[in-house]
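SAMPLE LOG
Freezer: B-3
Tube label: C17
Construct: single chain, 259 aa
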Amino acid sequence: RARERANTVALTSHAKYHEARAKELGTTPQAQTHQRTAWDLYCEIALMDKADFASRREAMGQAIELLPSIPPGPATQWLQNVVANKALAATGLEAVALKAMRIGNEKIGIQERASAILMMKDSVDALLKDETIEIEQLRIPLRLLTMSLVAAAEETIAKQAPKAGVAPETTLLLRALPGEKWRASIEPSLAVRAFKAFIGIALSADNVDMALDLLAKGLQRAPGQSIEMADEFLKVWMLRLNPPPDPRRMGRTWQRIDC
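STRUCTURE (predicted):
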């Protein structure tokens, strides 16, 4: 009945009950079930055309807060439904961008964070395909989301570039590269930072061809920053070719010599 009447108060109360139960139960499978139920309810409220906008916006914010704990498939599909909704698109993108800014400070694994950021990026890509969308309305949220993507990429490069192999989060972030329409909407200085970060991610994923392609596109966008971008390419490339020695291995080597 609550659904039929678009009774968002009852549905929100039900969602909050399940969310509270999830917190009480910690990391158990039962907690995951309650959290998923809460998320499903928040998602449903957000997309209720008959509900008042304030309730929809609040539910959307709650659903976005829970995104890192939701499987990528349903989370991406819901986000794309949000940004495809004319009434929610701009507000939804703003909420996504603010969540992306906060996610770096949350106590979750780097791979889980990269997965959540990729979901958000995919939803924005879906929005940008809509030719009726005014890009000016999205400029600030896109800037915030770009800053979050770049920060995650820079952190991953610092941790993973000197190591052998390709980490799962590096592969995820490689797919989070902003497209041309997105890059064109942000100011040149941030675009240069994005090019440098994703050149580093491509090299960390051992995809030299992609890194070279990004370098070429970066030089077209900002010729005046050519040395800065080329230096970043060479720095990360050399790290991949000549990683610094592992102190733990060096310690074991010296122990064997002492023996």
